[in-house]
């Protein structure tokens, strides 16, 4: 996937040394019910990882725990060599679009500026430097011309691009995205893939949750199959086998064998 032309400058994604993040026997319970059970994973600098699983598998919970937003019931999250005890500016979490209140009267530019809130003193208003950074982030996702528009008037794909711009403006080492490809159009998907290429080439680590198997194969260099515990972890071709997918999704998945466009065999039968 080539980098979109509006990412040529790359001014919001400078080269960086990066940080590893790992979970050590991480478990999270909600009212004594396990959402995650004994998760041990290491995410290296520059990796692009798809966390794959059905609804309720714990994907969002894992991302929020890595972001320092959820305290572990057991185990620990480490950023570099140090335990993570809360949120950290080196980590940015992008929530699902469906969880936002799009009726709130706020402009696209102001949504992106909110990404700078945790590094800007509360008593100081956003100045020219912050606004320039926010505009550049919008430009980087092809949304600069809509900076003054109310966020709720945008399409789903455009709203998702604004969420990505809000993450870009923070220049974090680790970017966590919860279902970034859900309900977006093909141009937005390609924009995201171009941004991912651009960021990982400069040392950022990207971890995204998805239940879209085809998108995971295209967008990730590594796949983690999750259903409360880790089912498989590795290169997509190695991790996303019919057996692992059946275990992850409970059998409710159709697997198509890889083939060239000129050779289109019938799909394999649905796993049961």
Low-confidence stretches: 1-15, 259-272
Order of helices and strands: EEEHEEEHHHEHEHEEHH
CATH topology: Rossmann fold
What's the story with the biggest beta sheet? 6 strands, mixed
- Look at the structure and give the mean pLDDT: 85
Structure description:
This protein is α/β, with parallel strands linked by helices and 272 residues long. It has one domain: P-loop containing nucleotide triphosphate hydrolases (Rossmann fold). It is 28% helix and 22% strand. It has eight helices and ten strands. It has helices at residues 59-66, 108-113, 128-140, 156-168, 186-201, 213-219, 236-239, 242-249; strands at residues 21-30, 33-43, 48-52, 74-79, 82-83, 91-94, 174-178, 205-210, 222-227, 229-234. The strands form two sheets. A six-stranded mixed sheet has the order 6-7-8-3-9-10, sandwiched between helices. Strands 2-1-4-5 form a four-stranded antiparallel sheet, covered by helices on one side. A hairpin with a 2-residue loop joins strand 1 (21-30) and strand 2. Helix 3 packs across helix 4 and helix 4 packs parallel to helix 5 (186-201). The two termini are 34 Å apart. Mean pLDDT is 85; it is low at 1-15 and 259-272.
Task: List the keywords.
272 residues; 4-stranded antiparallel β-sheet; disordered C terminus
Brief overview:
The protein has 272 residues and is α/β, with parallel strands linked by helices. The protein has one domain (5-240): 3-Layer(aba) Sandwich (Rossmann fold). 28% of the residues lie in helices and 22% in strands.
